[in-house]
Write a structure and sequence with these properties.
alpha/beta; 32% helix; globular
């Protein structure tokens, strides 16, 4: 059995304050073969690493990320999962890339937006996407930062919003791209596995990233036939991690990369990088 790539979700959100430099350093020290993070655009055009489009849940601040400058954001303390303030601050993307670059870790970089990312509707043949708003210019900025850090070959750019994926493919056709799909996105249009795969293939992505409860043997086989790499998120239970590995999933994203590595055997967990 080929071992899947283990990605530390937000650096390991159940181990350290999510999307913090502490988390990314910790994930690399653990030997995580990949780290996953989220980016937003600050008011002054800086690229910052934070999951939510508002500051309230994970920082001492409040309101939209996009209303603050990069320097203002970098001064905000992050909360841990219990809500307690820590000494960690909201990092800029270039600071995180400087942590990742000296390692061998791959980067899964999710592009967020200022509003809901997407909804899907039935179409004459399959499904169509109604994309939400994008941060204008974010794709150009993050690709430039990744290139400056020398991480192009180790980076996969991911998004729920198909317009983001299209933009990245236009700007950097050689970059790995992932369309992310949650179960909730597929319920309203009653989309089938074939609908999702046909839509993803039409975008020209290299990878499909699914909420893990959508993955089964039939889906993995169908993804293989399309020539795509398959990732699932977010999986912290060792039995489920081993199950998805046995199904042939390529990337398993986990808030507990330590648990995932132990479940799979750390020595083999890099084989699909």
């Amino acid at each position: 059995m080929t071992r899947p790539l283990v990605a530390a979700h937000r650096g390991g959100a159940l181990l350290w304050p999510e999307n913090s430099l502490l988390a990314f350093r910790g994930a690399i020290a653990l030997g995580a073969p990949a780290v996953e993070l989220d980016v937003h655009l600050a008011r002054d055009g800086g690229v910052v690493v934070i999951h939510d489009r508002t500051l309230d849940r994970t920082t001492e601040g409040a309101g939209p990320v996009a209303d603050r400058t990069t320097d203002e954001l970098r001064r905000l303390r992050l909360r841990d999962r219990s809500g307690t303030l820590t000494d960690e601050r909201v990092p800029a993307l270039d600071a995180v890339l400087s942590v990742i670059a000296p390692s061998t870790a791959s980067l899964l970089l999710e592009v967020k937006g200022p509003g809901p990312a997407v909804c899907y509707e039935r179409a004459d043949h399959g499904i169509r996407a109604v994309s939400g708003p994008r941060y204008e210019g974010l794709e150009e900025r993050l690709l430039a930062l990744v290139a400056a850090a020398g991480l192009e070959s180790r980076t996969t750019v991911m998004a729920f919003n198909p317009d983001v994926v299209r933009r990245v493919r236009t700007l950097a056709p050689g970059t790995r791209t992932t369309l992310l799909v949650a179960r909730a996105h597929l319920e309203a249009p009653r989309a089938t596995v074939d609908d999702v795969l046909a839509f993803a293939a039409g975008l020209g992505v290299t990878d499909l990233g699914l909420e893990h409860t959508l993955a089964d043997e039939a889906l993995v086989d169908a993804v293989r036939r399309r020539g795509l790499r398959l990732g699932v998120w977010t999986v912290d239970d060792p039995a489920l991690i081993r199950r998805y590995a046995a199904l042939g999933v390529d990337v398993i994203t986990s808030d507990r990369p330590d648990v995932a590595l132990e479940a799979l055997g750390a020595a083999g967990a890099r084989s699909r990088a």
